[in-house]
Design brief:
423 residues, alpha/beta, Rossmann fold, 2 domains, seven-stranded parallel β-sheet, 16 helices, globular
Length: 423
């Protein structure tokens, strides 16, 4: 099967999109399929024989110059003008403009592919691909309406106005999602949320959990805490936004340090001068919090494997890859009972301790209980590792995704036949 896998941005080591694209494409290729990834900036890291076709945008949000004004010589066509005008009017253009650029490419190359698989873009260009005769499948990791609602709840009145404009692309995503016959998501929780947010008909969504590389994310030999030295906590937050609950964790760390020798490694790209940095200043925890970003998977696996406790304090997650990665590393886990997290880690307490989202006191209690009990930490880590091996593998993700492709291809062929008969 010849597969075009689309991703409007694919940051390799932070956030789920780049991870999903890399590992799913590798799993599909290992099954003998030809996979070509089409991506905007930042581009993904891919494994042979998967190929990458770059679909460059104006890259208006690149580091270290986000919301930049491009030079006039960078403007190539009308899509670039749409991208620039949307940014200038406080909107987020990338899902739309990437889809239009990808549709332009795939219209010329429609005969090269059996199926198109979109990753979270849901731009109007996907409908153009369908009109060109291509079967289209789309993955929605979770409805971004959740991000919007939590951001709005945390914002002041003036900020609410710009946030509503920023999230304006959600109207488009809902319209497109309702017109794509085959949709994938990563958890039953996300499936229910997407159906409600985008008014998706019953039976259109299929749940296939994400996988984890259990060879890379594995227990670290000799990682048990020796006598002396601080307890090591780690949290992976793909974005500096209220949704990730980092503020709640920092409040918990401020309380924990009064009773324990603790050190938190926060794997995230913080906004300079933003809410998280300001909170660290107010809580005076800068001396026990290390912030790292841009690390590769090997380094991340080492941080998770060497930690005493991993934390996922999110207020909502459509899946939570960091939770699965921590379990695969055999590290005791404390996580919010929010979104799909209970579904991912289990609710019996064996692989993770679940706490109410946004409750710093509950985090303090759950983390403290684990720090006090060496044996429980080891038992929880072993149970988490066993769950990751049993439930989450990229090989099974790829195989189940191919089944959806085959269904989409058959449905498209049947629709084309019906049109011919009517003519």
């Amino acid at each position: 099967m010849r597969i075009a896998l689309l991703s409007y941005r694919s940051k390799p080591h932070c956030g789920g999109q780049g991870v999903y694209v890399r590992h799913l494409s590798r799993g599909l290729a290992s099954l003998g399929h030809e996979v070509e990834v089409f991506s905007g900036q930042p581009y993904p890291e891919l494994d042979p024989p998967v190929t990458l076709t770059r679909v460059p945008s104006l890259d208006l949000y690149r580091e270290p110059d986000p919301f930049r004004t491009p030079r006039p010589s960078e403007i190539r066509d009308g899509i670039d003008l749409i991208e620039l005008a949307t940014m200038w009017t406080a909107g987020f253009p990338e899902p739309l403009t990437f889809s239009l650029r990808a549709a332009r490419i795939l219209k010329r190359r429609a005969g090269d592919f059996d199926v198109v698989h979109d990753n979270q873009c849901l731009g109007y260009g996907l409908l153009r691909m369908q009109r060109a005769g291509l079967p289209v499948v789309a993955t929605i990791h979770h409805p971004i309406t959740r991000d919007r609602d939590l951001d709005l709840a945390a914002a002041g009145l003036r900020r609410k106005l710009t946030l509503r404009r920023w999230y304006g692309f959600l109207t488009m995503q809902g319209r497109v999602a309702r017109r794509i016959p085959s949709l994938l998501t990563v958890s039953r929780s996300s499936e229910a949320d997407i159906e409600a947010a985008f008014d998706i008909p019953d039976g259109r969504l299929h749940t296939i959990p994400l996988g984890v590389d259990t060879d890379l994310f594995a227990p670290v030999s000799g990682a048990n805490r020796p006598g002396g030295g601080p307890f090591r906590l780690v949290c992976v937050a793909s974005a500096d936004m209220p949704l990730k609950g980092v503020g709640t964790l920092l409040e918990a760390v401020a309380k924990l340090r009064t009773e324990y020798d603790v050190r938190l490694t926060l794997v995230s790209k913080l906004t300079p001068g933003g809410a998280t940095e300001s909170l660290m200043d107010r809580l005076s925890v800068q001396d026990v919090v290390d912030v790292v970003s841009g690390i590769d998977d090997t380094t991340l696996a080492g941080l998770l494997g060497e930690a005493d406790v991993a934390c996922v304090p999110s207020l909502y997650e459509g899946f939570s890859l960091p939770a699965v990665e921590a379990m695969a590393c055999g590290t005791a886990l404390v996580a919010s009972a929010a979104g799909a997290i209970p579904e991912v880690v289990g609710t019996d307490g064996a692989a993770a301790a679940l706490v109410p989202p946004g409750d710093a006191g509950a985090l303090v209690s759950a983390i403290g209980d684990l720090l006090d009990d060496d044996g429980r930490r080891r038992a929880m880590g072993a149970a988490g590792r066993a769950r990751a091996l049993r439930e989450f593998s990229w090989e099974s993700v790829a195989a189940r995704t191919v089944e959806i492709y085959e269904d989409a291809i058959r449905a498209r062929a049947a629709e084309a036949l019906r049109k011919e008969e009517r003519c």
